[in-house]
């Protein structure tokens, strides 16, 4: 590699392509449903890359037109803006392994949470875990859900996506979500990393109200986390 | 490329989610290990946020665990040159992922970069430089940043292995995983998907991790193979199916394996494992070897070598695995049952043996022999207008061939109840509802779009 002067390094960084990746805790479908603020079927209308002032990385904002609401404060026809790591502006590209990628024209079933920042948009819950692509089975009109879809270009062409012989249909997942939401189902409590404190408090309260017998160690563990955070742990 | 390979390979890539194995980030990026000396990027100098991550005891412990995590990539991976040295404190509250000219670790997500369920994430910036190793061109990494999430309690080795461990995540496992990303590695299996191969699930670069587990602390063979391609001595081989065959096809399946000359220079012994439990073949020269797989399965071919290389400090070992490269399929065994739901509505249940290897790639349903109205679906529902009987054919196809079965369905009876069937697999499913009839057939209405 060429040795770089600080000035040259700065230039290099500006044209550089950040890449990143994550490790996460696996969420069950019930946890996804409970933790998510919004669960919808939607169509991706447009995806735009943004570079925030003073930063070198790029994020993408997908505009989702909601076609069905399974959980949350929204109605059919509303738009939801989902911001994710990764995107491209000219030759500069940020890639985040583990972040979901949305493509215009794609139909999705998504579990969303609010970003924790002043100009909050939506964010896919659990990164790729909270996003399913819907592909219509041509011969019956039923939607099949896929996790991994090869994509290329700026437009999603549903008809070009091959389906596996054994298929998981969206009805089953959607019915389960609707059922869980309608019965205010609370999954077994655990302290999920990164979940904001107010939501964890709600989860804890709901779990007790639902009659869950919590591991007695949670009390001390939760108190310790809260005091760490309050003590300026960051 | 023959027509059948053209058809089957893309299908497999999309349909069989089990294929995997180490990956580089895309596009590939790596550190330039020759960029040493004043102002150079090598060895990596890491800087850490000036706080103690929750659950750890002291700053010294934090620095020590990070150093050990880097060292895992250098010392636990044969022939790996990965090296890192401790730098200085940085302001934890402002660092995050921003480019700063330093390689950093930030704790407790002070810039709110991460969402729920994420333990940590890594991001690297490249310069204009490039690095080439083993025929792969990488963008040269200039700096990397790891951000650990908030609302996580970390533990050291003693905390994690203690019987009393509760709600703690292994700091070293997560740090080693994230460092793997910062030196160019992607995930061993697709994110958000189960992964059946224990080697890939057990890799440091597997995408998820649970509490009180140290499973990802030490890189395994899959992780090591990636490091060797990017930074060290690597080995590779070619695999060619026998004439008239494909690597995906019916049993028995034969292929030959060869090591290209550019990989032979320092090798003193070759050991071939064909993944099917048969005896390994060991040779001291790079001669072509042939193998036949007899039974249905998806097989990984592994070449392990012993070599002599001064740059590697003398004797070394390396390995190349082609995960799931051979898929051998028996003929499909389609089977179905049906449930009469009343009003001449018949719900079909597909009970075909799907096997574990994705050997069925297509199901087609044909009613009364009418190929033009064939349905490509997993389980159709038929709505008839009267009680006259119909024949239903299920055709299953895949690399092992094509098989079809036909049953006669009486819309007033249940599966197995007095109907003729040309195959096994029709158990009685319960009692029926039935009625009188009109005529004709109403195909299941298409739902929308
Ligand atoms: Zn990761």
Question: Short description, anyone?
Answer:
The complex is a heterodimer of chains A (234) and B (449). Chain A has 234 residues and is α+β, with helices and mostly antiparallel strands.
Number of DSSP E strands of chain B: 23
CATH top level of the largest domain in chain A? Mainly Beta
Q: Mean pLDDT of chain B, as a whole number?
A: 84
Quick one: overall form of chain A?
globular
Explained architecture:
The complex is a heterodimer of chains A (234) and B (449). Chain A is α+β, with helices and mostly antiparallel strands. The longest helix of chain A has 14 residues. Chain A has two domains: 173 residues, OB fold (Dihydrolipoamide Acetyltransferase, E2P) (Beta Barrel), CATH 2.40.50; 48 residues, no CATH class. Helices cover 24% and strands 29% of the residues of chain A. Chain B is an alpha/beta fold. Chain B has three domains: 228 residues, Collagenase (Catalytic Domain); 92 residues, Immunoglobulin-like (Sandwich); 104 residues, Immunoglobulin-like (Sandwich). Helices cover 14% and strands 33% of the residues of chain B. In chain B, strands 1, 2, 3, 4, 5 and 6 form a six-stranded mixed beta sheet that branches. In chain B, helix 3 links the parallel strand 7 and strand 8. In chain B, helix 2 crosses helix 4. The longest helix of chain B is centred in the N-terminal third of the chain and has 17 residues. Classes of the chains: A alpha+beta (234), B alpha/beta (449). At the A-B interface, helix 1, strand 1, strand 6 and helix 5 of A face helix 1, strand 5, strand 6 and helix 4 of B.
Question: What would the keywords be for this entry?
Answer:
heterodimer; A: 234 residues; alpha+beta; OB fold (Dihydrolipoamide Acetyltransferase, E2P); 2 domains; 7-stranded antiparallel sheet; 3-stranded mixed sheet; 5 helices; 29% strand; B: 449 residues; alpha/beta; Collagenase (Catalytic Domain); Immunoglobulin-like; 3 domains; 6-stranded mixed sheet; 5-stranded mixed sheet; 6 helices; disordered C terminus; binds zinc ion
């Amino acid at each position: 590699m060429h040795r770089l002067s600080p000035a040259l390094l700065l230039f290099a960084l500006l044209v550089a392509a950040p890449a990143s990746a994550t490790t996460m805790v696996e969420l069950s479908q019930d946890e996804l449903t409970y933790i998510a603020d919004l669960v919808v079927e939607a169509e991706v209308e447009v995806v735009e890359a943004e570079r925030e002032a003073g930063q070198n990385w790029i994020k993408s904002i997908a505009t989702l037109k909601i076609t069905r609401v399974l959980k949350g404060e929204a109605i059919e026809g509303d738009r939801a803006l989902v911001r994710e790591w990764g995107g491209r502006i000219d030759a500069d590209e940020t890639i985040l392994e583990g972040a979901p990628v949305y493509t215009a024209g794609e139909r999705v079933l998504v579990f969303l949470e609010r970003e924790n920042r002043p100009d909050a948009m939506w964010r896919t819950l659990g990164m790729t875990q909270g996003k399913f692509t819907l592909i219509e089975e041509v011969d019956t009109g039923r939607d099949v859900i896929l996790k991994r879809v090869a994509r290329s270009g700026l437009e999603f062409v549903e008809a070009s996506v091959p389906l596996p012989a054994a298929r998981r249909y969206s009805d089953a997942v959607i019915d389960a979500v609707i059922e869980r939401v309608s019965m205010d189902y609370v999954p077994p409590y655990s302290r999920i990393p990164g979940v904001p404190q107010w939501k964890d408090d709600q989860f804890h309260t709901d779990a007790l109200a639902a009659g869950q017998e919590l591991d007695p160690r949670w009390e001390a563990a939760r108190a310790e986390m809260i005091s760490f955070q309050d003590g300026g742990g960051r | 490329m023959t027509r059948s390979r053209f058809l089957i390979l893309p299908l497999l890539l999309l349909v069989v989610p089990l294929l995997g194995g180490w990956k580089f980030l895309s596009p590939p990026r790596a550190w330039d290990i020759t960029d040493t000396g004043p102002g150079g990027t090598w060895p990596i100098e890491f800087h850490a946020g000036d706080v103690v991550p929750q659950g750890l005891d002291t700053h010294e412990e934090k620095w020590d665990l990070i150093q050990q995590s880097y060292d895992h990539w250098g010392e636990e991976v044969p022939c790996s040159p990965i090296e890192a040295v401790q730098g200085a404190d940085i302001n934890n509250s402002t660092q995050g992922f921003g480019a700063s000219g330093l390689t950093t670790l930030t704790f407790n997500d002070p810039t709110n970069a991460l969402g729920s369920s994420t333990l940590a994430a890594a991001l690297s910036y490249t310069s204009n430089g490039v690095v080439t190793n083993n025929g792969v061109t990488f963008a040269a990494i200039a700096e990397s940043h790891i951000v650990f999430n908030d609302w996580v309690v970390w533990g050291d080795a003693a905390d994690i292995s203690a019987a009393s461990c509760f709600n703690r995540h292994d700091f070293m496992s997560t740090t080693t995983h994230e460092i793997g990303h910062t030196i160019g590695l992607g995930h061993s299996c697709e994110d958000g998907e189960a992964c059946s191969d224990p080697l890939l699930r057990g890799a440091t670069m597997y995408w998820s991790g649970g509490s009180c587990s140290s499973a990802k602390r030490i890189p395994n063979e899959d992780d090591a193979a990636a490091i060797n391609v990017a930074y060290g001595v690597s080995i590779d081989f070619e695999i060619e199916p026998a004439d008239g065959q494909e690597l995906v096809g019916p049993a028995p399946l034969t292929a030959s394996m060869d090591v290209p000359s550019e990989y032979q220079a320092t090798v003193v012994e070759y050991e071939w494992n064909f993944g099917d439990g048969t005896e390994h073949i060991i040779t001291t020269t790079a001669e072509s070897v042939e193998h036949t797989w007899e039974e249905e399965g998806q097989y990984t071919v592994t070449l392990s070598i012993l070599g002599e290389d001064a740059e590697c400090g003398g004797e070394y070992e390396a390995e190349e695995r082609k995960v799931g490269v051979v898929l051998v399929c028996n003929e499909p065994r389609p089977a179905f049952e049906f449930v009469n739901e009343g009003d001449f509505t018949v719900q079909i249940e597909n009970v075909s043996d799907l096997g574990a290897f994705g050997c069925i790639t297509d199901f087609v349903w044909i009613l009364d022999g009418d190929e033009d109205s064939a349905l490509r679906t997993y389980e159709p529902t038929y709505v008839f207008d009267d009680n006259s009987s119909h024949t239903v054919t299920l055709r299953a196809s895949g690399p092992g061939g094509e098989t079809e079965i036909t049953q006669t369905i009486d819309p007033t009876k249940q599966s197995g109840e007095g109907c003729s069937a040309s195959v096994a697999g029709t158990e009685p499913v319960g009692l029926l509802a039935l009625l009188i009839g009109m005529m004709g057939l109403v195909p299941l209405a298409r739902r929308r779009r």
